[in-house]
Amino acid sequence: MRRIKKSIVIALAAAGVVFAQNTQQWQNLYPTYNGLAFGNGKFVAVSGDGLIRTSSDGEAWSQYFVRGDGANSRSVYAVAYGGGEFVATQNNASFLRSADGAGWYSEGMGSNIPVRYLTFGNDNFVGVGDDGFAFLYDKEDGWINRETSANNLSHAAAGAGGYIVVGDGVFWSQDALGWKTASGASVSGGVGVVAFGGDKFVALAKNGGSVLTTDNVKNSWTKTDATAVPAGMADMVFGGGKFVAVGKAGRACVSSDGSSWRASNGLNPDDDFTAVKYGGNTYLALGAKGSVYKSSDGSTWTKLAGKSVTSYKQIAYSGSKFVAVGDSGVSVSSDGKSWERKGDAKGLNGVAFGGGKFVAVGDGGVIIYSADGDTWTPGEGVDNSSILTSVAFGGGKFVVGGKTSGNFAVITVSTDGQHWNSQDVEIAWGVGKFPVSLCFGKDKFLAAVMGTKSMKTCEAAGALQYWDDVGLPNEADEYSIVSTVYANEKFVATGTKRTGEAIVLNSADGDSWQAISVPSNIKGLKSATYAKGTNIAVGDSGNIYAVFGGEWKLQGKATNRDLSAIFSVPGKAIVLAAGAKGAMLYTEAEPTSVKHAAAPRAAASSKTGLMRVNRFGRTPVVTLSFTPNSAGAIAVYSLSGRQLYKTRLVAGERNVSLPERAISNGSVIVRYSGGGRVVNQRFQFVR
């Protein structure tokens, strides 16, 4: 067992005070929700995408992307509200703090064990992490962790002057420092969730069917059979006079007394729910696939959002309907925002629309077609041993590309999406050379060739056996083309250099190409398009870039999942970006260069919210805008987290003079803590 002292690390991007950046430009339609809290009149949800979202009603959300190392993010695991602030934990054992759920400060925990669930009670935050560790967060002493005898802990609750953590067993403590095994709390398979309410603790068995209750952390627990309690409950809350639990496969249950339970209605069996909270006379449940459900009584639920496939590789649009395909099949949308899974096809790589039909292709020679995107039918005359990588429509015909089991190119053609005829192209393309991406524009088909910096083209009116080589720009480093699209009267190809750097090429006619310079630090680009008068590209870690004045600029991020497709809707302002693990982003906004608010400069005076600093000669004075009703402290930290100065304040005291050493670094973080309130603000002193 060990005590972990607080380590302050204020993470500020580009001199920005606010740690989380508003990313409303790109809307993440399916965040992987991990946790939920309610406080100060709003719900705050956190996700494995690096997103923090806020809402007053569960329907309209604002979202913020948590910046991590460089352009990447750290997943957010858990969040809770208490003592006038939200606290959220991250996967590298750092944590975030916010008074309003919008502006966040990052701090180190001094531990390499992440907190995966967090709650608040008895004036303290308490959580559980890996390897059977339980955590206490004290605003003065920081994070303190203690081992229990469990290998795994999953949930925690506070009340009745004590704390309970559950997992492989049930453990109690009156101070969250010394943990003991609870008496009479053994159930087969362990305990999944626990909550306090109605003057009692209630815990549900992981395997379902059993409930444990007690009215005091030190007392023995009573076990009761409860057949309505499902297995796999992930979170439970007490609110509105009821216990409500949600979990795997859309299962949920509700109880007024903690002993008698009944199943809930209206949840989706395709969703694995991760969090539930009560606030504003509303129960809100979140799922791992971006699901949001709302209930007024905890029994009957209404779906607000959610349900996506596990990956996307390409998107097509008919003029009234979107179709996206990926490893797990087909998803369909009428507006680009609300998507629904259709059919049972798997392993799809490409989709196109033309002649009143969608055609999707994939592994195992799969070709399926649909007039409405909802009902799909297999094509005829297809080689089931081939791998089909892409499809395009033009000149009254669909053209599908891929490779045979012998690694030769496949080109197959259809005028109706149903009947297909293969073209003899093996000799012309050569062994190992096959199309990885197809598009159509300017009366010609264009194909990117696997593993090379070459592309091939064929006139729509010509014979599809014969493809001509396209001359591409010579670069100092060899490169290969991975994607080609035609959008808004322009061909755009995306490639990767041998060194791992990205390359993007533009062409107005598909014959003459121009390389668009991409900085060496931009890597992992998977696809690019031309939209809103500029090139826009997507890649790994959720990065989206757009060209401004000849320079690539990172766009506001909305996920840390890899993106592999970008689609500009013809005749509309809509742009979609999609990729791994159900990532689907939507925007109608113009591209923008990401900027961060500059820190306030304080030559004579600086005012930012609840604290201000005035200079009197060489002595700066911190003044609080409120009058503390209890003792507190003022501390000053460098941006690297080193404490420069700390002093106590008595109740009613608002002013503190800072010594010269406290401002020697120029930029500092000043923190007030006391009376359950914590205020962090940054000041820059100019000599």
Write up what this structure looks like.
With 687 residues, the chain is mostly beta strands. Among the domains are: 99 residues, Lipocalin, CATH 2.40.128; 153 residues, 6 Propeller (Neuraminidase), CATH 2.120.10.30; 119 residues; 80 residues, Immunoglobulin-like. The protein has one helix and 65 strands. It starts with 19 loop residues before the first strand and ends with a strand. The N terminus is likely disordered.
Terminal Cα span: 47 Å
CATH superfamily of the domain at 318-470: TolB, C-terminal domain
> What is the tally of helical segments?
1
Shape: globular
Number of strands: 65
- Beta-strand percent range: over 45%
Could you name the ranges where pLDDT drops below 50 across 5 or more consecutive residues?
1-21, 595-608
Find the CATH topology of the domain at 318-470. Neuraminidase
> Considering DSSP H and I runs of 4 or more, what fraction of the residues is helical?
under 10%
What does the main sheet amount to?
5 strands, antiparallel
In CATH, the architecture of the domain at 318-470 is 6 Propeller
The Cα radius of gyration reads 29 Å
Structural class: mainly beta
CATH class of the domain at 318-470: Mainly Beta
Strands in their spatial order, largest beta sheet: 1-6-5-4-3
